[in-house]
């Protein structure tokens, strides 16, 4: 009996409404007006259906349309706001950039741990490889991360001398982009290599032991238990 009770319970499966609830909680922590905003979006959908129904005298079709919009518009608003709220809540956390890179989507090979790390200053460089080449994303003041970038460039050049390397510096200083604009900055780079070259580059760079220093536990932004699906707005 005791052995049966000691078995770990299975994790409860989460459904779409659970993720929707997570997204709502995350967003409301940043935007306290969220409940009123969602109600306003729903009211706007119903009002749209009522107005067009009155103008066209086709109440059935536009009433159904209004009801659908009353569900769709709040969902679109929540989807848009949850990502911004997540970025604002992650901003300033060590390793927050890795959470952004993991949302780049298919076609990207992302290193979730920094490829370059200064344990004294907590400055980091993360790496992603995709059709736009190798993208290095930094965390830390511009004047301090330049050395880390140069070290990583030299390491890359040893195994892939012709690979295109782009740099995005995240932060709030001059010449940096804020966390919510990192993904947009990455996707502005032109496509330069094929999918086959992406795979080949990933294999080569995985062989680089570019960071022998221990990574502190504190850099994992997911220890805040933030839903990754909520971050993507799903």
What does this molecule look like?
- With 234 residues, this protein is an alpha+beta fold.
- 51% of the residues lie in helices and 11% in strands.
- α2 (16-30) packs across α4.
- The longest helix has 32 residues, at 59-90.
- Mean pLDDT is 78; it is low at 210-228 and 230-234.
Strand content: 5-15%
Give the termini separation: 41 Å
Shape estimate:
elongated
Q: Give the biggest sheet.
A: 5 strands, mixed
Number of strands: 5
Spans of at least 5 consecutive residues whose pLDDT stays below 50 are 210-228, 230-234
Order of helical and strand elements: HHHHHEEEEHEHHH
- Arithmetic mean pLDDT: 78
Kindly name the structural category. Answer: alpha+beta
DSSP helical segment count: 9
Measured on Cα atoms, how large is the radius of gyration?
23 Å
* Range of helix content: 40-55%
In a nutshell, what does this entry contain?
It is built from 9 helices and 5 strands, in the order H-H-H-H-H-E-E-E-E-H-E-H-H-H. It is 51% helix and 11% strand.
Descriptive tags:
about 230 residues; alpha+beta; five-stranded mixed β-sheet; about 10% strand; elongated
Topology:
Elements: H1 2-5, H2 16-30, H3 34-56, H4 59-90, H5 96-101, E1 109-110, E2 116-118, E3 123-130, E4 133-139, H6 142-159, E5 165-170, H7 182-187, H8 195-206, H9 228-231
Parallel strand pairs: 4-5
Antiparallel strand pairs: 1-3, 2-3, 3-4
Helix pairs in contact: 2-4, 3-4
């Amino acid at each position: 009996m005791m052995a049966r009770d000691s078995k770990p319970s299975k994790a409860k499966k989460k459904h779409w409404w659970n993720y929707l609830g997570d997204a709502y909680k995350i967003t409301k922590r940043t935007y306290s007006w969220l409940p009123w905003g969602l109600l306003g979006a729903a009211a706007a959908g119903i009002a749209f259906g009522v107005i067009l129904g009155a103008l066209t005298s086709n109440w059935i079709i536009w009433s159904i349309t209004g009801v659908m919009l009353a569900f769709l518009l709040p969902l679109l608003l929540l989807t848009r706001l949850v990502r911004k709220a997540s970025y604002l809540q992650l901003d300033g956390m060590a390793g927050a950039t890795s959470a952004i890179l993991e949302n780049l989507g298919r076609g990207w090979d992302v290193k979730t741990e920094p490829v370059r790390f200064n344990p004294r200053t907590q400055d980091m460089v993360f790496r992603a490889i995709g059709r736009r080449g190798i993208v290095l994303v930094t965390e830390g003041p511009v004047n301090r991360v330049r050395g880390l970038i140069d070290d990583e460039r030299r390491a890359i050049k040893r195994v892939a001398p012709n690979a295109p390397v782009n740099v995005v510096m995240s932060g709030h200083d001059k010449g940096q982009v804020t966390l919510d604009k990192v993904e947009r900055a990455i996707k502005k780079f032109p496509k330069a290599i094929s999918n086959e070259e992406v795979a080949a580059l990933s294999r080569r760079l995985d062989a680089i032991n570019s960071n022998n220093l221990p990574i502190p536990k504190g850099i994992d932004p997911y220890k805040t238990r933030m839903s990754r699906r909520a971050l993507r707005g799903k």
